[in-house]
Amino acid sequence: MDMGTSALSKKPWWTLPENFHAPMVFHMEEDQEELIFGHGDTHLRCIEVHSHTLIQLESWFTATGQTRVTVVGPHRARQWLLHMFCCVGSQDSYHHARGLEMLEQVRSQPLTNDDLVTSISVPPYTGDLSLAPRISGTICLSVPQPSPYQVIGCSGFHLSSLYP
Question: What Pfam families does its record include (predicted)?
Fold first, then answer.
């Protein structure tokens, strides 16, 4: 199955309302934004296309120069990007290197279903604070519900509580 289409409907992901119900929203430090998206966000479009997501970057005038990041798209693609963001921001050299590999991958080629399954099976946090990326805010990843009549749930957590 192509990542850009739904398994059941074969419709492009952006035509399915459930991909927009609970966007992933958080704040990222300016230097991490430049590392991931490039100077002037030159890599933003290819990351969006290759991850089958839409990403909005909004600069905020804060003391730390944070950028508000909003991501919409298929649930597993958002999880993969969150894992990549966390690893890139990690102070642990192994996880940081893994994050840079993931970043190079999403910049150079479209993500496959195998990529998404592999990423989901390896949780980004194991209780080690060295894995805490330099991002903060509420990250919301809605889990697809079995019935369209149920309210979409949101499992949110605050990464900002990991920082002194």
Answer: MOEP19 (PF16005)
Q: Domain residues of the chain, as ranges?
A: 26-119
pTM of the model: 0.72
The strands making up 54-59's β-sheet, listed across from edge to edge, are 54-59, 66-72, 24-29, 135-136
